[in-house]
């Protein structure tokens, strides 16, 4: 269904959802957008081509961030279905795979505190790690699948160690956990595993 009772239906998992606002609300949103612009740029720099863009969103209630797809791309569910196909066409997947937009919630305490930390030192390893954690958790909550679940688990373990104030004997609390910067995707290995003889 594209329309119901004279109203156009829009998927909330895709970008372009517009809500009617008063002039005062529009002004407040513009101020928040300008305030969080440096953080959006930093998140985009850290995540690279994992996301097409990072924007401030006012449709999120509780979550610090969500991932939405382009208006004409595959939804998270469709992407999952197509990846599960045994005889799928890899060339089609490459251009139909959804271009993800990360929307951050300016009212979230997590995002506000992350902005404060980034203003103090944008090259802080913890800030980069938190950006990746936010991205990977929003992948899960938005219905996508993780590229590397062991790396995600490693980041969670590192945050638990920080929370418990645990340090290794040599003083390096990173230990054998994955690096902060994302390792290159092993798409070629995945493609080989999915080939059908």
Description:
With 197 residues, the chain is mainly α. The protein has helices spanning 23-47, 76-83, 90-96, 109-120, 125-141, 149-163, 187-194, and strands spanning 3-4, 7-8, 53-56, 65-69, 100-104. It has one domain: Heat shock protein 90, C-terminal domain (Four Helix Bundle (Hemerythrin (Met), subunit A)). The chain has 7 helices and 5 strands, in the order E-E-H-E-E-H-H-E-H-H-H-H. Strands 3-5-4 form a 3-stranded mixed sheet. A two-stranded antiparallel ribbon has the order 1-2. Strand 1 and strand 2 form a beta hairpin. The longest helix has 25 residues, at 23-47.
What topology does this entry show?
Blueprint: E1 3-4, E2 7-8, H1 23-47, E3 53-56, E4 65-69, H2 76-83, H3 90-96, E5 100-104, H4 109-120, H5 125-141, H6 149-163, H7 187-194
Parallel strand pairs: 3-5
Antiparallel strand pairs: 1-2, 4-5
Descriptive keywords:
3-stranded mixed β-sheet, mainly alpha, disordered C terminus, Four Helix Bundle (Hemerythrin (Met), subunit A), 197 residues
Strand order of the biggest β-sheet: 3-5-4
CATH class: Mainly Alpha
Query: What is the overall number of helices?
Result: 7
**SSE topology string:** EEHEEHHEHHHH
Count of individual beta strands:
5
Largest beta-sheet characterization: 3 strands, mixed
CATH arch. level architecture = Up-down Bundle
**Which structural category fits the helices and strands?**
mainly alpha
Q: Domains counted in the coordinates: how many? A: 1
Give the N-to-C terminal Cα separation.
Answer: 40 Å
Question: Which homologous superfamily in CATH is the superfamily?
Answer: Heat shock protein 90, C-terminal domain
């Amino acid at each position: 269904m594209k329309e119901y009772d004279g109203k156009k239906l829009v998927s909330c998992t895709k970008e372009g959802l517009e809500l009617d606002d008063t002039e005062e609300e529009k002004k407040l949103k513009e101020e928040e957008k300008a305030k969080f612009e440096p953080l959006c740029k930093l998140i985009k720099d850290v995540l690279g081509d994992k996301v097409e863009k990072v924007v401030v969103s006012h449709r999120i209630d509780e979550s610090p961030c969500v991932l939405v797809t382009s208006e004409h791309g595959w939804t998270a569910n469709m992407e999952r279905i197509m990846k599960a196909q045994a005889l799928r066409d890899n060339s089609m997947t490459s251009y139909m795979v959804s271009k993800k937009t990360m929307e951050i919630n300016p009212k979230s305490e997590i995002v506000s505190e992350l902005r404060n930390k980034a203003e103090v030192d944008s090259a802080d390893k913890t800030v980069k790690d938190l950006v990746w954690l936010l991205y990977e958790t929003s992948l899960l909550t938005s219905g996508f699948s993780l590229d590397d679940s062991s790396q995600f688990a490693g980041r969670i373990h590192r945050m638990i160690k920080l929370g418990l104030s645990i340090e290794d004997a040599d003083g390096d609390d990173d230990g054998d956990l994955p690096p902060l910067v994302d390792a290159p995707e092993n798409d070629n290995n995945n493609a080989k595993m999915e080939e059908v003889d």
